[in-house]
Each structure stands twice: as C-alpha cells, then as structure tokens.
C-alpha cells in the first residue's frame, strides 16, 4: 500500500499534484510563463485534470468544482484521483507531492483517499513476471489544515478497506471458514482488538441451528467469530454490535445456482463478514473511543451428502422453527442466529451487513445499498449523513407488516422465503423476527463485488460498508 506522509516542505524536482479551484492563483515560481499560460487556457476550457511535463518532473493540476452538494464535491475529487493514477504509473512516478491549494482539509483528504483506494491490487496468485510495479510508492501531503492524526487515520481506514477486499477476493481453496478465523486473528494482533472463535462443538452446544443447517453439506466445519474493541473509557455505555454474513462460498445448496455471473463469483458471499472485520480493524487501530462487538458466523453452502433440502425444518438459536423452502436463501439463517446471539450484549444498536438478496442487486445495481431499519429517525439520519459523506449511497426499503404474511408457514414458525416479489423486503422481515433492539440492516449484494472497475472501488471485492460504518461510529 502507498505510504502517506505529511510534509511541510516542497522537495525539489518532485512530481506534484496541485489541488485547486478555478479561482486559485498558482505559485509562479513553480511554473514557467508558458506553462502558466497553458494551464490557464486548459482551465478556461473546463479541463478537470491538466498535465504539465517539465522534463525533470511532472505537474498535475486538479481543478475542483465546489459548486453543488459537498458530498458530490468530494466524490468528484476521489474520481479524479482514480483517473490520475494510471498516468502516475505510466510515467513511473514513485514519489508524489500533493499540494492543497484551496486550504480546505476535507476535499484534499478525499482526493488522497481516492488515490490510496485506487492503488489496490489483488496479485497474490500472479507469477512474479505478471505483477506490475507499484506507482507511486509514497505520497507527501502538504496542507496547512491537515494534521498527522488525519493522515494516520486515513491510512488505517484505507488499510481496513484493503483487508476487506483481500478477504472477498480470496478463493475458497484458501479461505475456508476456519481460515477466515485465522485471518481475523492476524488482524486482531495488528490492530489490538479481542477475538474469540466458537468452533463447531460450541456452536452445537449453543443450538445455532441456522448456521449448522447451512453447514450440513460441507466437509469443512463452521466457525463463529466474535470480535470486540472495548477501550478504557468508551463513549457508549452499551456496545454497538455489527453482524456480518460469512458464507465463504454459496453454491445455493440443493437449490443449486446457475453458473454464469452467479455461482462463479460466490466466493464473495462473505463480503458482509469481511466488512465487519475491516470496520473493527479500523476502529481498533485508530483507537476510537467506542465499544464495538463484531459477530461473523461462517461456513460454505454446498449440496453434499447430508445437505439440508427444501422442506426441512430448522430450530434456530432462539428456539424459532423455520421451514426451509429454498436452500439458496441461506445467509438469513446464519445471520438470524447472530442477530439473536447479539441480545446477550444488551446492545444500544445492531447493524448487520450482508450480500443477502439478488433482489437488492436487481433493484439498485452496483450503485446503491438497500437498507431497512427499526432504528429511530435521529439515529438513521446520522447513518444517512455518513452514507453521503463516504458516497456509499443507501436506499431505505419498507418493513411493512404486510410482507410478514408471506413468511407464514403451516408447519413451522416461519418460512425462510416469501413470494416471487419483494425478496429484499421479505428477507429483512425474516431477520426482523430475531431482533429486540434498534437495528439497521444493510444489503450489499449489488456493490460488494464488481465485475468491472468502478473508479476507486476497482474490480472484484470493493470493501463496501467499511468506510460507511466507520464514519457512522466515528460521528456518533
């Protein structure tokens, strides 16, 4: 990952990015008169990024547009940073100076964030000859209003997103449920949070029938990871609990998925669990004064010998009986166990995050996140502010009780699926049955795994949810 450092000097002969607005007066000592004339002409033409080759160095002028919503202002700068990165690699620029010429920390931090997030590569399985060299390797940031703490916090947050992306991009041949627990243990050592792993015998003793039923077709055992960051003087009296779906690979079970653009990318079905791990990593390493617990139930879903079949009845952790009519609606089963388990912490609120329904992706594509909630308007308003702040946009779906009727079973307390329509909502209504606290449910089925690059979110695992939930916890 690129090393980000705050500087108070302007090193000679170092390629630089000048973040400006149209009204900014560029330093004359940094450019020749011809270069300044060229830059002014490009600004008047409406160029967003201007490149100047001074032979001994490159200069890039990023023209920010502060008109319009502030959230879009910052997002546009992240996107401009993503467009700039290929130029830096093309010109083998290993060290880059970023100059804040608008004297506003938020936009320039957003620009640097875009550079850092765009630099992600998952090349673990490429042979040495196929790997590209990283450019730049260092970013020097000069800004009168950005402090060391800001720089350190941003670096850690981007690391957390990268960790989540890595987990999503790993294949099941490496990242089984047990290996996920091992990876989280390594994160806990690096960031300083507590990590406990419930193994299969403990899961059986607890009666987590949802998690165990999904695991029945797998040769690999399930795990239930409990992550906790509790500083000495947390601001919250009761913990905030995060629950993440950890389906390491989803074939659909006996309700087998089609292959094209479906089963072939189902290593990403644990993206919610990866995001929870990333959030706890960032919160702990940045020492946020908030008590947070993460719950990640994990298994793969396969159609092997003793796999659960449609029509089976499952007894959940809280005693609820569920008629399973579709084994491909498995994420809600293990997530429901986690939500019921969360009650033991007497939480102030719970946020769950999961690649839960294809319906959410059908409704919003990769651009939005489906959300449902019982949290009050004040709490949800803060969550919405964070969504705009990091530009991981959310759309609230209703939790009307009309949809609960679709989950009624003749032979059990609930069915695990509703009808053919409103699948995202009936999944949310299913989960709602298992809660008794303020709750926000996040369905990231659309943006969790990208089949083509989308600006600084890249291609493959996006790490969606890490920045959103971190920002929300920080602002609380």
Structure characteristics:
alpha/beta; 9-stranded mixed β-sheet; 476 residues; 2 domains; elongated; 6-stranded mixed β-sheet; Aminopeptidase; Leucine Aminopeptidase, subunit E, domain 1
Write the SSE topology:
Elements: E1 3-6, E2 16-20, H1 33-44, E3 49-53, E4 58-63, H2 70-90, E5 95-100, H3 105-118, E6 138-142, H4 148-169, H5 177-191, E7 194-198, H6 200-206, H7 209-215, E8 223-229, E9 240-244, E10 246-250, H8 271-285, E11 292-301, E12 313-315, E13 321-323, H9 331-341, E14 349-354, H10 358-364, E15 369-373, H11 377-390, E16 394-396, E17 414-415, H12 423-432, E18 439-443, E19 449-450, E20 460-461, H13 466-475
Parallel strand pairs: 1-6, 2-4, 2-5, 5-6, 9-11, 9-14, 10-11, 13-17, 14-18, 15-16
Antiparallel strand pairs: 3-4, 7-8, 8-11, 12-13, 15-18, 19-20
Helix pairs in contact: 2-3, 3-4, 4-8, 5-8, 7-9, 8-13, 11-13
Number of domains: 2
- Let me know the number of strands: 20
Report, as a whole number of angstroms, the end-to-end distance: 29 Å
Helix content: 25-40%
Label the overall shape.
elongated
Name the beta content range: 15-25%
Low-confidence runs of at least 5 consecutive residues? none
CATH architecture of the largest domain: 3-Layer(aba) Sandwich
Tell me what you see in this structure:
This protein is α/β, with parallel strands linked by helices and 476 residues long. It has 2 domains: 3-144, Leucine Aminopeptidase, subunit E, domain 1; 155-475, 3-Layer(aba) Sandwich (Aminopeptidase), CATH 3.40.630.10. Helices cover 35% and strands 20% of the residues. The protein has 13 helices and 20 strands. Strands 7, 8, 9, 10, 11, 14, 15, 16 and 18 form a 9-stranded mixed sheet that branches. Helix 2 (70-90) packs across helix 3 (105-118), helix 3 (105-118) packs parallel to helix 4 (148-169) and helix 8 (271-285) packs across helix 13 (466-475). The two termini are 29 Å apart.
